[in-house]
Amino acid sequence: MNLATVTQLQQSHHVIKEFKYALQPVVHGYANRTLHIQLDTNNMTIKPVDQKMKDTFTGGKGFCLWLLWNAISKDVKWNDNQNELVIAGGPIGGITAYPGSGKCTVVTLSPLTKSIIDSNGGGYFGPLLKFSGFDALEIQGKAKEDVVILIDGDTGTVKIEAAPLDEVNTHLLSKQLTDLYGGDTDKGRRAISVLSAGQAAEHIPMCGLNISYWDPRRQEIRIKQAARGGVGTVLRDKHIKAIVVKYSEAGGDSNGVANMDLIRAAGKRINKEIADFDASQNDMRHYGTPYLIEIMNRFNILPVQNFRFGSDPEASKINGEVWKSMFDFRGPDGCWYGCSLQCAHGVPHYHLQSGPYKGEAVFVDGPEYESLGALGSNLGIFDPPAMLELCFYCDTYGIDTISVGNSIAFAFECYEKGILDKQKTGGLELTWGNAPVAFELLHQMARGEGFGVTVGQGVRAMKALFIEKYGADPQMLQDMGMEIKGLEISEYISRESLAQQGGYSMATKGPQHDEAWLIFMDMVHKQLPTFEAKAEALHYFPIWRTWFSLHGLCKLIWNDIIPVSNKTAKEPAKIPEHVENYCWLFEGLTGKKTSPEDLMWQSEKVYNFQRLFSARMGYGTRQHDYPPYRLIGPATVEEYENLTERYDTQLREVIGINPEGKSIQEKIFLTRQYREAQYEKLMDAVYLRRGWNKDGVPTQETLKRLGIDMPEALAVSAAHGG
Amino acid sequence: MVQVEAHLFATFKAIAGKNKIILEVLPGQTIEDACFALLTSLPMLRSHWLDMNGQLQQYVHVYLNQSDSATLPNGMLTELQDGDILDFIPPVAGG
Ligand code: SF4
Fold first, then answer.
1. Which residues of chain A lie closer than 8 angstroms to B58, CB-CB?
2. Rounded to two decimals, what is the model's pTM?
């Protein structure tokens, strides 16, 4: 493969626009300004961040939402000039004394859901952006040609450069740009983070962003993803090949904190816990998230064959220990400095079997649990090399593994049901476990041709297409299409957890586990026995989990290591000792006394604001909070028959109907009636607890209480009866 | 004797070097008794499962026939029956 050399790239990169700005230190976690780039005019502006913005939106995702709210009107479409890609780390982000502090959040109007999406990922981009001088970056408009944007925090320069020879696929582009701007030393390369998508982002709406960092031990580019909702598709729609941030002096004191001792105290406590207990608990440092596979399989909540079933005897082939034996342990696996949990593993020297890089040996980041669920069990593929192949190509092409996994699974099931056939798929046999076909679908998405492009439009678009073009039964497709709000559902089967059904379905951006993961609390530990308890959990946990993306923090440090103090904690699910750590972090950062309620208060404002923002864009109301029935109960005969004893027992003992003598269809109908009514009741209880009206919109009273009562916000609420 | 099948998952399985063991306990003995019987058979788990007072760490989750022992009326003191299955699973946070 002939790649452009650094010299060729230098010669081809002509500067379209250069912008100089004054360097200034970060104070108490804030750079106190944001950068706006108008790509169609190449205009660049610095906006101040005032105290009111900090008090109302805190930072990170909060800032992104506020900037986007001000930038777009309610009629804007995702690919209009007006839509923005907004990226931010967060005030605590970049701290190195506490693990998991390198995340950033991306917010935009989604090409997949058409509503507001937020997606977060690790890597160095968020902290380096802030240290370079900006709490957030807004990009509006579209470039006239393919460009790379460079934010150089060493010199105080932003450049928009034409980038005609740069690759598009991440594994090549990130390396090219790291070498181009970072030189050939480890120090230089560690100062670089590249944000990029991939070829598929030019053709399908489900592409995410890859966020890079240099791994000096392995001499590899490593990547983490802000994968969800099409944020990468927006990047390429703006004709951006990559955004690069460069900052060489990142260190423990780069955040300008008020009380480093308090931050160190929190860091010391959590790092000791990880050192003492990780090996006895989840051993994230050696297994990463794939350890979940066998546990989900045991509890019958691992998606198998498009979420029809919850376990498979072959799941052991993609268990945690399989990956542990392949992971490269030559160096630390933290995706930002100071992460002692180090779950960001990778597999070296994988030889690709297909596609444009066939035969090449590559480093594959991950795989993570979600990718294994989506591309493995959910497709009936249990072959580790095939998993690596799929993960690698998803990453380099920029495709979200969850969305594409569920979309391929949906197409496989449509093929099985006869809705699709070989003629319609261009000759591809979409059968369970058919890995080569899954590879080919990805390559077609990248090339922008063939049936892969249809699959790449996502489940919601396929449903509409198959109904219109092939006369498929709308109810059947609605029941088996594993998406809500246009976003494919992440990889847990929630049929036996009403709270998790609500967690997925009432999440504003769409069904993503990072907002509410209550399945074990509810289904396994039975800690949420009443509607009130479920509603309380669906109030507290989504708001609490949102808090991490306000600050550029990784949630795994909160709940993937359990402190000894949890034994006597009143509410162990909240992990109070770790919440206290976060109070210390914010207090250490700002010098302001901080309580757990203060943290929730920060987050509740942003959580409600996002809901209202979605309502303003025509979404974010009750009608959008309904899941496909398969998420709630057995949708087909085979699903019922798979667990007949469980469902019959529920009919008898919970619903009060004797199943004897009833056909499976009757039993499915009666179960469905009951479960759907339960879900309706849950919605009412949750909306009430959240301070939303029956239509699921924050009331004016709620907006006033939270101090997000800007006139336009109140008007949106009023328009929805709030 | 009462025969119980104990399954070990994820980290616990890796530490023990096996995913299954048959335990024999006396009639009337409990889940808690079975835990200590298991630690006798698989002593490599002791330092991971027991705190300084010799008590089971709270992150060792034990399930009896797929029900969380903490949700059973008698908790860890639930008496075992012949053919029961015990699962030992590390803490699961998800997402
Ligand atoms: S726990 Fe994993 S994902 Fe989170 S910051 Fe550390 S390495 Fe990154």
1. 562, 564, 566-567, 572
2. 0.97
